[in-house]
Specification:
The longest helix is centred in the first third of the chain and has 11 residues. The chain has 3 helices and 5 strands, in the order H-E-E-E-H-E-E-H. The protein has one domain. The radius of gyration is 12 Å and the shape is globular.
């Protein structure tokens, strides 16, 4: 069974920022999203987007570093 949950406007804006190349993710189980170098205002949504498979880091990230974020195919479909 697939559960479909509608994304909030904030979540879609976060995905659009990543799509525009403005996002970075920190390392760890609960990666934080940074947009334009600043921490995103809603880290819970950031965690949800990563865990839902909508966005990911472009490379493996250690706890003390950040990497550029990218959308998955599912993430691109979510904002199409």
């Amino acid at each position: 069974m697939t559960v479909v949950r509608e994304l909030s406007g904030r979540a879609k804006a976060m995905l659009r920022a990543v799509a525009a190349g403005r996002g970075e993710l920190s390392g760890g189980r609960e990666p934080d999203l940074y947009v334009d170098g600043l921490p995103c205002c809603d880290q819970m949504v950031s965690h949800d987007l990563v865990h839902a498979g909508l966005l990911r880091a472009r490379r493996v990230v250690r706890l003390d570093e950040r990497a550029d974020a990218e959308l998955t195919d599912e993430g691109r479909a979510a904002i199409a």
